[in-house]
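In full, the data:

***
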Amino acid sequence: MLAVRVAAQRLDSTDQHPEPDALDPLSALAYGRCVSSNFPADILDLQVAEHDPDARVVTVVGEIDALTAPKLAAFLTEQLAVAQIVVVNLDGVQFLSSAGLFVLLEANELAIRQDRALRLVYSSRIVNLALEATGLREYFSFADNVSDALKNSP
């Protein structure tokens, strides 16, 4: 496992050699952070449930960022290839980056081109803020919960 420590060095006017790890208060905030790649390999969990031959529910838990967005894109594409209705439950999403928003938008456009339905379900404040702040909310179909999303079949 790789761990990288970022440490600032302070050089006093009387000292010609910097002291490693000697941080003043401002640089401690900006530079005295530890960056580690010891994060869990699976920061995104995707599960699918078949509700009938034409409906799938994809449950997303974790973080959708540039690292995990391709995994979500491939997963949603697979489900749209076999189901008329794909419900994406985003209640477990803890982070949603622009890469994640792009994946959801692309999946929605794919569903429209293939005459299928992609419906989002979420109560997550994070997802709501991301969709509202970017103005993308209007491009998606929503339901309050998974059962409502499945009831409103085309």
Q: What stands out?
A: Confidence is low (pLDDT under 50) at residues 1-15, 18-39.
